[in-house]
TrEMBL record:
<keyword id="KW-0472">Membrane</keyword>
<dbReference type="InterPro" id="IPR012902">
    <property type="entry name" value="N_methyl_site"/>
</dbReference>
<keyword id="KW-0488">Methylation</keyword>
<dbReference type="InterPro" id="IPR045584">
    <property type="entry name" value="Pilin-like"/>
</dbReference>
<dbReference type="Pfam" id="PF07963">
    <property type="entry name" value="N_methyl"/>
</dbReference>
<dbReference type="InterPro" id="IPR000983">
    <property type="entry name" value="Bac_GSPG_pilin"/>
</dbReference>
<keyword id="KW-0812">Transmembrane</keyword>
<dbReference type="GO" id="GO:0015627">
    <property type="term" value="C:type II protein secretion system complex"/>
</dbReference>
<keyword id="KW-1133">Transmembrane helix</keyword>
<protein>
    <recommendedName>
        <fullName>Type II secretion system protein GspG C-terminal domain-containing protein</fullName>
    </recommendedName>
</protein>
<dbReference type="GO" id="GO:0015628">
    <property type="term" value="P:protein secretion by the type II secretion system"/>
</dbReference>
<feature type="transmembrane region" description="Helical">
    <location>
        <begin position="12"/>
        <end position="34"/>
    </location>
</feature>
Length: 128
């Protein structure tokens, strides 16, 4: 107290200690946050692949032909829309697999993600 004035506030040391604690907490939380985002994208990818594969199967059983494009599944009301690949964040990166047998006409028997990245389980997304 100088001249009857009381100083209220934080010292530089106190502020540095608080900032250090915040920095340590952020360094612990940030990797878990990004891991949870990656896991949620993987979950969405698995779901989208399952939905598209089921739509292809239903299309084939109803029409005795494979679809020529993913948009055919939308036009025939097997899908509401072509989903966005959650890993690449694009609709046009899906890898379309042609049928191995020549029993039915059409071009798409299966679909995979267009991402070459590695998943959390060590496999490649393109192999799912």
């Amino acid at each position: 107290m100088r001249n009857g004035i009381v100083n209220h506030g934080f010292t530089l040391i106190e502020i540095l200690v608080v900032l250090t604690i915040i920095g340590v907490l952020l360094s612990l939380v940030t990797p878990r946050y990004f891991d949870s985002i990656d896991r949620s994208k993987e979950t969405v990818l698995r779901h989208d692949l399952q939905v598209m594969r089921n739509a292809i199967d239903h299309y084939v059983s109803d029409r005795n032909a494979y679809p020529d494009a993913l948009e055919d599944l939308v036009e025939a009301h097997y899908l509401r829309a072509v989903p966005v690949d959650p890993i690449t964040d694009r609709k046009d990166t899906w890898i379309l697999v042609a049928p191995e047998d020549a029993f039915y006409e059409g071009n798409i028997a299966d679909v995979h993600s267009g991402s070459e990245q590695m998943a959390s389980d060590g496999s490649l997304y393109v192999e799912w």
